[in-house]
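Propose amino acids for all 137 sites.
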């Protein structure tokens, strides 16, 4: 029986940088960092549908903290992460759930998913690599 695998892709709308909220973030001191952090949160939560939390065991949800996000993103100071999260909440890019976990709003605008069989994935990957080798020569 062929395995099926779920692949996620990040959708960056063509007007992403012109969206009012993103444009405003970019105009802030450290604005470029805030936008990159947001994109890292989008990519980092693709498997959890935008939930910024870890599931421990069957039911325990541990919300991400600014320190956890800083460790995961590795390039930004804690102060920058804290300010970014504050701005995301003000701009309603993220919201806080009742259990304290943060969640990306409009998650579906930025992330999509497709199911493909492992064989189909391997074939498509092999074809892509073949095209790339052909383009190089």
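Proposal:
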């Amino acid at each position: 029986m062929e395995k099926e695998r779920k692949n996620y892709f990040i959708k960056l709308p063509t007007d992403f940088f012109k969206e009012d909220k993103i444009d405003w973030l970019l105009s802030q001191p450290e604005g470029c960092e805030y936008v990159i952090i947001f994109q890292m949160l989008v990519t980092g939560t693709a498997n959890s549908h935008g939930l910024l939390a870890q599931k421990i065991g069957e039911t325990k949800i541990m919300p991400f903290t600014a320190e956890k996000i800083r460790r995961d993103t590795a390039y930004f100071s804690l102060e920058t992460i804290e300010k970014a999260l504050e701005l995301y909440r003000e701009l309603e890019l993220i919201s806080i759930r009742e259990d304290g976990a943060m969640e990306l709003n409009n998650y579906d605008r930025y992330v999509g998913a497709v199911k493909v069989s492992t064989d189909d994935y391997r074939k498509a990957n092999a074809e892509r690599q073949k095209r790339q080798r052909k383009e190089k020569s």
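The first strand starts at residue 4 and ends at 10. The two ends are 38 Å apart (CA to CA).
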